[in-house]
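Notes from hallway chat w/ T.B., transcribed later so I don't forget. T.B. wanted the structure written out for a chain they're using in a teaching module, and asked if we could keep both sequence and structure tokens in one place. Agreed to drop them here.
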Amino acid sequence: MKHITIAMPFLLTSCNAGSSTTGFGIASIVAMFVLMFILFAVMFFLIAKRKKQGEKSLARFNSDVCTALNKLSSPQQKINMLNKLIERINNEEKYKKDTDWRNKVLVKTYIHLAIIHYRTGNEMETLNICTKITELDPEDGIAYYNRGSIYSSMGLYEKALQDFNRTIELKPDHAGAYNNRGLTHEKMEHYDEALADFGEAIKLEGSPIARYNRGNTHYELGNYQAALDDYQAALDNPGTDSDPVMKNDVETSIRVTKGKLANTQN
């Protein structure tokens, strides 16, 4: 990389012309700072340009991987291809010279691998890959979210909470992380925390899923009217019509909750 050196101007002094030499010194200082400002502006421009080019290269790499995967028929063939690609990335000299770039390319590749393993039902391998992604990029909030969801489904609730907390720290507007953390809290019988998380998910996205989940928590607490209000709001959401299974679950919950309310009023 070419280095740019900044020449420091000499501040000339004279015993015979105090006022004029002081003015010249100030002018030199101003000129120096102007020059430094210009050089820093150029430097930041070059950095931004390189970053933009890098993002385009990553997008192109990701597109090429997708194209190659689409040409393969079985999940195992796709897994084999991605594993060979990972091995190649780790061994090529050009990647060894720029580990930051190598890690970014590896993250893209591991994401594809995680998706395939998840779709084939291999949760443990998906979890391991998510861990590798967080090691390569500790700022990847989605990897923590995915791993937290798997931990929760495995009953490892404390680990799940840690990952959802990290996701929310990195992506405070991620409604899904609040919803899934709420579900984890509910499984741990932390009902107040669950209600708060579902409420935040509703505020961020207005999802009928979060409404339905909050309704279930209210139901567990015996707050049947609050549960019914959430179920009804979930049913009235346009998104529920596109999911027949969920719509059926919500309608069933409404009927059961109305029956509970009728019994408490008698």
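Follow-up for T.B.: Residues 53 and 59 are 10 Å apart (CA to CA). Might be a good example for the class.
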